[in-house]
Structures
1.
Amino acid sequence: MAPTQVKKICCIGAGYVGGPTCAVIALKCPNIIVTIVDLNQARIDAWNSPTFDLPIYEPGLEDVIREARGRNLFFTTEVDKAIDEADLIFVSVNTPTKKSGVGKGFAADLNYIELATRQIARIATTSKIVVEKSTVPCRTAESMRTILDANSRPGVHFDILSNPEFLAEGTAIADLFAPDRVLIGSLQTEEGKKASAALSAVYNNWVPTDRILTVGLWSSELSKLAANAMLAQRISSINALSAICEATGANIDEVAYAVGKDSRIGPKFLKASVGFGGSCFQKDILNLVYLSETLHLPEVAAYWKAVVDMNEYQKNRFSSNIVKTLFSTVTNKKIAVLGFAFKKDTGDTRESASITLINNFFQEAANVTVYDPEVKEAQIWQDLTENGGDLAAYKKKITISNSALEACEGAAAIVIATEWDEFRTLDWTAVHSKMSKPAFVFDGRLILDAPALRAIGFSVHQIGSGWPSL
Ligand code: UDX
Ligand code: UDX
């Protein structure tokens, strides 16, 4: 029998998902001991940093760590010990898109999930609840169960739950404190329901009962992919409309406002942009595409694939419009790219639109300066060259700046790639005085007051409006 009351939790994977989620569980459940483990010693050391130099940046995270760390929250690389002591284990390891083999470029790589599952089976001397926290393809829980059942010690029983995480980066702590819903999937057996109730009781320390949804295992797994696919689909839909706006003289912000007033549609996730980024949207949709194909549903696969294709189109369309507007050549012109994170209030750069934009400008032989308030320099170089680019060649044409003003010095054009608040409140008069003329601003995030900037003398072009020369 797996435990019915959770007193000790182990979380495998101290990343963007496992770290904040289990830190908040520890904060809200002072009677539960929470141990977060990771193979990466540097990452664990950062979580244990005496000066709170944590491995990820999230507003409010430091306060949570300050209060809970050392009280009932611990970070360690002693994985085996933490596994064996726990009543409940969250598996929060990464599940990147496969880079080779069957399903290459689409399917999730479940290698880390399988390794973690085998480790749990090998180590555990008492029965446990194992919770799939990572976003995984449908029916992964079944594979986990097969591995656990085949490798467990005599008398040790595992119940498997799916408990996908819906937090968004940049608002992770606020999302965890007051989630729209907590989703728990279990087998609909007596034991499965008991395990589900035990995990519900953990969340119930701060989440109201009516927000804790209990469903079947497969529904829970698919719901996570479906939620991300539908959110991304809204962005690709509005971005497709932004291209029509540019061609017709309509304004995408006005269209989104008018459309979003329909209470059946609602106003959220209708902000046109240079394209969505982040570790989840593209990966999860490609996963759904792969699932649909393996289920022999090619029309369904093509439908979801178009959401990703539209996102690629939007990024490339924006950069080629910029080149066209800059008199169809940017060779040796200085372009300042403001923002490298995939959205504001995070240092995360995974799938960031900036990477595509800068690479496109680099191909056009532009000189690019980049500024981001949170992203570390080494990360920028790593992202730009991850597909085999020559670092030395990049360093000749690309410079990383310490401030927005510095990046804009002598630039022909500014490109807003991330919606950081500090870009709204820049001293734009000072920026204008430092640029070569005519001074162009390309707003890929619709955050700037275009009329005010035009009054200073800027030529302003925003996604979804104001491209008169095209
Ligand atoms: C990842 C996935 O991207 C996401 O889809 C899933 O929902 C949760 O896991 P994230 O937390 O952002 O999200 O990943 P990452 O920041 O890479 O963290 C995973 C951590 O697991 C890393 O620190 C890695 O070192 C650790 N890990 C990985 C292990 O401890 N053991 C392993 O076997 C593999
Ligand atoms: C997303 C989901 O929101 C979250 O529920 C899930 O758990 C993980 O994936 P995240 O990737 O952190 O979260 O960020 P999100 O706020 O959803 O933004 C994703 C991308 O879409 C960003 O690049 C953002 O700038 C872009 N976006 C978002 C738009 O372009 N327009 C919008 O209206 C909203």
Note: The first strand starts at residue 8 and ends at 12.
2.
Amino acid sequence: MRLLLVEDDAMIGEAVLHVLRTEHYAADWVRDGSMADEALRTEQYDLVLLDLGLPKRDGLEVLRALRARRNSVPVLVATARDAVGDRIAGLDAGADDYVVKPYDTDELLARIRALLRRSAGRGEPVFEHKGVSLNPATREATVQGTPVSLSAREWAVLEPLLARPGVVLTRGQLEEKLFSWKDDISSNAVEVYIHGVRKKLGADLIQTVRGLGYLIPKQ
Ligand code: CA
């Protein structure tokens, strides 16, 4: 899953980025409203963590522009503990949820998981399909109830496919889940991690759709 962190405070930004990457999210960090706007126009994200008080362009302005473009990426706004008015304005401008600063890391991560779950159209916290189950909160994977150890990047390619059985994801879309801007991408990275997943979970779970990408069949 690829996240955009919008935060102008260097210390907070570094700390949150570290937490997100430790949880194996591919995360990009921008420090002002103009850069956030630019990133949101050019890149595909699964979720945005948006501070509202930003230089150059206010967070609310960025959010309104995003929704005016009919971009429905989940947005979690960050506000000060006592700033009830900001939370209301954020939600009314199209945010899906809010977190208060200073962050409680566990709460932040739980809200991110909940939003990602809802945006994938699921209520239940665990992905389960064809005997394979993934729990994003504990990062436990099982096949027919037996635990399997997946690397962070194997998880990153499997999760979006398992979240939407029957939907084809292109190699480019899967690359976006794997890497943030600063990572070097080898041209066969997606194939490598798909291969790893197949070795661990069975060769026929993920199907290659020639010329299009990959999918996990519905049935
Ligand atoms: Ca700020």
Note: The first strand starts at residue 2 and ends at 6.
